[in-house]
Amino acid sequence: MSNIDSRSFDIAIVCALARPELEKVLETGEAGWEQLSGAENDPSTYYASTFMAERGAQLSVVASAATQMGMPASAILATKMILRFRPKLVAMVGIAAGVKSGKQNYGDILVPNRTFDYGAGKLQQVGDRVELAPDPDPIRLSERLRARIDQWSSKRLFLDEISQSWPLSQQRTRLQVHVGPLGSGSAVVDTSQPMLDVLDHWRKLVGVEMEAYGAHLATQTAVSPAPEFICMKSICDFATAKTDDWQDYAAFTASRLLHRFLVNEWENLFLDPR
């Protein structure tokens, strides 16, 4: 095992769940992953690997999963990884809920161009109802990442290859990448009204989950200069129709697309890779 205090990494991958999210991340790449040695003051478990970029750069990657779901846990883990490993890029990968079942399918990858906390704001009495006056303070992705993500979405790069490499014979639809705002909340949503309320303010919303905004905020506040942030989360259910049947497939498509994106785009995004 390696000494985690003596290494820096190009990329830090943050997951909310050890299974299936981190599990699928640890299946990516060709070099395999090693568990890093622990530290007395840090209970988290970290795994390291090397990705080979398209033009030959070797990308050092570290990955970990939070101890529980939610924005606080993911923000804490992202902050620890930023301070310890000093990455140029923090990537969050995993599963999420879609919000437009007529236009989205299981396994489709959601790539936010901004993240926000849809529960932030002021609760106020309006007639006989208590309503939220939202104050989400969204965070945008960098323009250079947004430009590349839009290109991958429009051209559907590697999506058919990823879908066809899924080892099970489960019915699949043609994978798509959906780029737009991604909302993070503090609770699992299994009813339509909260999503209708969010959609009233975010008509281009692509999905909801519980962690991305926390990890994104950590990249903006932990150190200066801030590392870049990207998130890829695939649809495992819809906010009004919860199911666990698609979690493995969704974690698979998200982790595979992230790997493809990193090895193909790193040398375009970072001209001086370590």
Task: Give an account of the 3D structure.
It is a single chain. The chain is α/β, with parallel strands linked by helices. The protein has one domain (4-269): 3-Layer(aba) Sandwich (Rossmann fold), CATH 3.40.50.1580. It has seven helices and twelve strands. It has helices spanning 18-25, 71-85, 143-155, 159-164, 192-201, 212-221, 247-269; strands at 11-15, 34-35, 47-52, 58-65, 89-98, 109-117, 121-126, 129-134, 139-140, 177-184, 207-209, 228-238. It has a five-stranded mixed β-barrel with strand order 5-11-10-6-12, surrounded by five helices. A two-stranded antiparallel sheet has the order 7-8. Strand 10, helix 5 and strand 11 (207-209) form a beta-alpha-beta unit. Helix 1 (18-25) crosses helix 7 (247-269) and helix 2 runs parallel beside helix 6 (212-221). The longest helix is centred in the C-terminal third of the chain and has 23 residues, at 247-269. The protein is globular. The mean pLDDT is 88.
Q: How would you summarize the topology of this molecule?
A:
Elements: E1 11-15, H1 18-25, E2 34-35, E3 47-52, E4 58-65, H2 71-85, E5 89-98, E6 109-117, E7 121-126, E8 129-134, E9 139-140, H3 143-155, H4 159-164, E10 177-184, H5 192-201, E11 207-209, H6 212-221, E12 228-238, H7 247-269
Parallel strand pairs: 1-4, 1-5, 5-12, 6-10, 10-11
Antiparallel strand pairs: 2-3, 3-4, 5-11, 6-9, 6-12, 7-8
Report the portion of residues in β strands. Answer: 25-35%
The CATH topology is Rossmann fold
**What is the molecular shape?**
globular
Largest sheet: 5 strands, mixed, barrel
CATH class call: Alpha Beta
Strand order of the largest sheet: 5-11-10-6-12
Mean pLDDT: 88
The assigned structural class equals alpha/beta
Domains, number: 1
Helix content range: 25-40%
Give me the count of strands: 12
Catalogue the unreliable spans. Answer: none
- Our count of helices gives 7
Q: What is the helix/strand order?
A: EHEEEHEEEEEHHEHEHEH
Distance between the termini: 22 Å
